[in-house]
Amino acid sequence: MKWTINALLIFFFFCIGLASMAFGQKPSFTHDAIWTEIDTFFAPPSKYKDVYGDFRSPLVFYDGKEVKNKGQWRKRRKEIRSQWMSMMGEWPDLMKKQKMKVIDSEELENFVQHRVEFYWTPTEKTQGYLLIPKGGGVKPAVITVYYEAETSIGLGVNPHRDFAYQLAKRGFVTLSLGTKETTEAKTYSIYYPDIENAKVQPLSMLAYAAANAYYVLANRPEVDKDRIGIVGHSYGGKWSMFASCLFDKFACAAWSDPGIVFQDDRESINYWEPWYLGYHPKPWRKRGLITAENPAYGLYPQLRKENYNLQELHALMAPRPFLVSGGSEDPVQQWIPLNHSLAVNRLLGYDDRVAMTNRPDHSPNAESNEVIFKFFQYFIGD
Q: What would the 3-class secondary structure string for 337-382 be?
């Protein structure tokens, strides 16, 4: 009798799956199937389990008191963000109600590509690309950030950086943004109110611009405002990391090999540069590693002297999920700082909120990107 009941249950769920596919819907088990493809990335190897290194715990207030419950974490979270915003410079007011202007449109494959324009700072407009899958209904969305907007829609020279294009084909509304003009000028970032007298560290200002992009995207009728993520690679990885950590309306995030914590011996983990966290008036330092002859200026040396590092910002994501798509700048030992975010999530009662993949090269590849796409499908997809 037991075998008969099990057989009937299997047949019942099989019929549900067939019916769902017949009506063009995903079977109910699709979500679980995605999880089985990515679940192994949500825990460190045994070698790094519960290893916290020299990184200051986010679960200890700056005055030394320990965080022991959710209520205390809310206060500690506010303390961390307030301290970092004070050090980096407070943001201007966010622009919550503006709508993007569509400049032109083109039908491509299973989505429509719009070139759009909006204010991402109080004084500066940007142009980007809005990709909207065909078909009705409200959809999840992902903002992609990079040196320029064209790479993410598939027009770049480097492969596997076309996040907006790939996600749009998978049913996500995507908004591709970049700092094309300042990249061409080799100043790379956003300077507010201007490059001669920036009041906000440029990397934080990039995060502010992404927060405004969130609102202009959330105001679109096709977009579910509660299911908007952000992703970027390298420079864009730093940008997406700071944006998602400092602005908690992003539902989830993927950071591709940004260098997730400060490291002064890696030239690409260069938070000390004036376009990130080391802003100083021109003439700027010569680009490259910090040396006695070529020191860092501005906020960055202060952060290092006072033992600040980015594990504190990672913790602001909790309990929102994030994925580090690690390459040469974020190898497997980066689980050591990530363990601090695991600890915060455990305190809040959450598992499976912090993930990392690893590849030998800085550049993303098809395999690492597939995990990124499945990550977004699992946490905010339909």
A: HHHHHHHHHHHHCCCCCEEEEECCCCCCCHHHHHHHHHHHHHHHCC
Name the strand (E) or helix (H) holding 30: helix 30-38
Q: Tokens 């946490």 belong to which residue? A: 379
- pTM beyond 0.85: yes
Structure tokens at 27: 């079977």
Indicate the helix (H) or strand (E) that contains 231: strand 223-233
Q: What are phi and psi of 295, to 5 degrees?
A: -75, 170
Alpha carbons 186 and 178: distance in angstroms, whole number? 13
Of 85, 65, 87, 89, the closest CA to residue 76 belongs to: 65
Domain 38-380 in CATH 3.10.20.30: no
C-alpha 301/C-alpha 292 separation (Å) is: 13
What is the token pair recorded at 12? 């019942």
Identify which of 173, 117, 181 has the alpha carbon closest to the alpha carbon of residue 140: 173
List, as one string, the DSSP characters of 110-151.
TEEEEEEEEEEETTEEEEEEEEEESSSS-EEEEEEEESSSTG
Taking only the tens place, the pLDDT of each residue in 340-357 is: 999 999 999 999 999 999
With both helix axes pointing from N to C terminus, report the angle between 70-88 and 235-246 in degrees, rounded to the nearest 10: 130
**Residue ranges per domain, the chain?**
38-380
| DSSP-derived pairing of the beta strands 322-326 and 354-358 | parallel
**C-alpha distances out from residue 21 to 29, 216, 378, Å:** 12, 35, 19
Report residues of the chain scoring pLDDT below 50: 1-3, 5-28
